[in-house]
Write a structure and sequence with these properties.
By secondary structure, the chain is mainly alpha-helical. The chain has one domain. The protein contains 13 helices and no strands. The N terminus and C terminus are likely disordered.
Length: 227
């Protein structure tokens, strides 16, 4: 049966901190449901033996999250809008980008705090903040607040729930369910991307027909750009 020691040797505390950092720092951790991962880690910290002491989660996760935000901010500041046209952003999807943009329009700099509790949006927010030239000191303040509330609060809730006898009795199933929420969304995302790319290229017999379209069809758009 799957046990806590197996998860510890497979991922460990360093693995969780790495995922939290990558989610906003390298823009590739968005495929992992961070909330569920942190909550499950908190439950496992209440196990006997514990996955890791609770304090290591409540200290390490906020630090990893805040550092990831800083790297995301730096990437946005240096690379600017080019990031939005990158392959990673196509993976994330335009919906997350549009939602983040709406949050900034509505809440301004406080978005950095709120975004921590919204999956995927927290991945895009530091980049937006960077290339929009948000004040770095204000960004750091709200990033630290959000990272602490999210990174310490969710594992603590999991830890409190992990102390319930019912949860302890069926802890293995909670761990398996937590792992499933990590890998199933990743598999779905990969399948959707593969399916989208598979249908993107037109069949060979349709290509000549598309190429034969009159050039005049593109002239109005060109004229508009010149104007």
């Amino acid at each position: 049966m799957f046990d806590v020691h197996m998860l510890l040797t497979t991922f460990g505390l360093a693995g969780i901190l790495g995922i939290v950092f990558m989610e906003t720092g390298l823009l590739i951790g968005f495929i992992f449901p961070g909330d569920t991962l942190l909550f499950t880690a908190g439950i496992m910290a209440a196990a006997d033996p514990p996955f890791t002491p609770l304090w290591t989660l409540m200290v390490g996760i906020p630090i990893a999250a805040a550092l990831g935000d800083q790297l995301g901010f730096f990437i946005g500041r240096k690379a600017g809008p080019r990031i939005l046209r990158s392959r990673v952003m196509r993976w994330i999807g335009p919906e997350a980008v549009e939602k983040t943009d709406r949050f900034f329009d509505k809440y301004g700099v406080v978005t950095v705090l709120f975004a921590r509790f919204i999956g995927v949006v927290r991945t895009v927010t530091p980049v937006f903040a960077g290339f929009s030239h948000m004040n770095h000191r204000a960004f750091t303040l709200y990033s630290a607040l959000g990272s602490t509330l999210w990174g310490a609060g969710i594992p603590f809730l999991g830890y409190m729930l992990g102390g319930v006898p019912f949860v302890q009795e069926f802890l293995h199933w909670f761990i398996i369910a937590g792992l499933a929420t990590v890998f199933v969304p990743m598999a779905i995302k990969i399948i959707r991307l593969w399916w989208k790319n598979r249908g993107a290229a037109p069949p060979e017999d349709e290509a000549p027909e598309a190429a034969a379209e009159p050039e005049a069809a593109t002239e109005p758009a060109t004229s508009d750009v010149v104007k």
